[in-house]
Amino acid sequence: QKSKIEHQKPSGLLQPLFIPEWKWDSIVMDFVGGLPKTAKGTLVPKLAEIYVEQVVKLHGIPSSIVSDRDLKFTSRFWESLQESLGTKLRLSSAYHPQTDGQSKRTIQSLEDLLRACVLEQGMKASQSRQKSYHDKRRKDIEFQEGEHVFLRVTSTTGIGRVLKSRKLASRFIGPYQILKRVGKVAYKIALPPSLSNLHDVFHVSQVRKYVFDPSHVIESDDIQVKDNLTIENVPLRIEGREVKKLRNKEIPYVKIVWGGPSGENATWELESKMKSSYPELFSGKFLRTKILLSGVEL
Fold first, then answer.
1. What 8-state DSSP symbol labels residue 143?
2. Beta-carbon contacts of residue 84 (< 8 Å; ≥ 6 apart)
3. I need a surface site. Which of 59, 72, 224, 240 has the fewest CB within 10 A?
4. How many CB atoms within 10 Å of residue 92?
C-alpha cells in the first residue's frame, strides 16, 4: 500500500469563502514577509489602534475578517481591537448582523443597488463554475476518528521536504491514527515523536486510507526531523578518491557513502571539507585514487 501508485481522483472538495453583502463587510488580512529586520516594530495592540483609525473610522466595523494567521494571533488581535473600541467581544452583539440584525446599511441609490445585485449574482455564478470545475477532478472522501491513514510524501509538502524523497522512495509513510476532524477537508493526525516538528493537521488530499491486514507487520519509519525541517544523513565510509588537476592546482575529492531513512547513497565531496567535518573517516586508507586532468582520467 505504501508503494502502489494511486489511480483515483484526488480527495477534498473546494470550500469557497462566502460572498460579502457589501463593501468592507468582510476584509482579508495578510502580512508581507521577507523584509529586512528593524529595531522598531508595531506590536499587536498598536496594530489594533491603527486598524481603528484607518479602517473602522472610515468604513465601519466589518462582520468578518479572513486571515491566514494562527489562532493565537487572531485571538490577541481581536482582544486588542475590542479593547480599543471600548466593547466586549460577543458573537451575538450588535456588530454581528448575522445574529440579531441591528446593523443597518447606509442609504443607497437605485443604481448602486442594481449594480450590487448584478455583481453578487455574477460572483455566485463564477464561484459555482469554479467549484464545479474543481470538483470534477476531485472526490469526496471522509475518515472517522480512530482510523489509520498513510501520509503522502511529495516534494511540495512538509513531509516531502523533510525526507528529500528520491525516485524509488516510498510514496507514503505511516500508518498513523486520526485524532479528530478539523473542518470539512482536514484531519489531525497522531504523529510520532520523530515528526513532532511538523504541523499535525493535514488536508484530505495528503492522506491515503490504510487497509487493515492482520498479517501485516508494520515497520516504524525511523525518521529524525531537526528543528529546521531537515534530516541529517550520516557518512558511513569512503569508497574512493579522485584528484581533479587544473592548470595551476589540484583539487582532491572523496566519494562518501551516506546513510539515511531512504537507504545508502554516494556523493562526491571536497576532501578538505570532509576532513574538517568528519575527521574520523580518514583513519584508514583509500580504496583507490584517480587523477583527472582536464576531464580525462589517467
1. -
2. 45, 48, 49, 51, 52
3. 72
4. 9
Question: What is the tens place of the pLDDT at every residue in 123-138?
Answer: 888 888 887 877 777 7
Residue 97's pLDDT is 42
Q: What is the pLDDT of residue 96?
A: 38
Residue 261 grid cell: 531513512
Three-class SS state of 65: strand
148 CB contacts (<8 Å, ≥6 apart)?
174, 175, 176, 177, 178, 210, 212
**Angle at the Cα of 8 (from 144 to 175), degrees rounded to 5?**
45
**Residue 175: pLDDT band with limits 50, 70, 90:** confident
**Cα 3 from Cα 192, distance rounded (Å):** 21
Domain boundaries, the chain: 1-11+137-231, 26-135, 234-297
Q: 48: closest CA among 69, 70, 22, 77?
A: 77
Asked whether 178 and 145 are in contact (CB, 8 A), the reply is: yes
Q: Strand runs (DSSP E) across 32-163, as ranges?
A: 64-67, 148-152
Question: What pTM, to 2 d.p., does this model score?
Answer: 0.40
pLDDT, tens digit, for every residue of 46-59? Answer: 777 787 888 888 88
Closest alpha carbon to 77 in 51, 41, 40: 51
For cell 544523513, name the residue: 233
Residues of the chain with pLDDT > 70, as a percent, come to 58
Per the CB < 8 A criterion, the answer to whether 225 and 192 are in contact is no
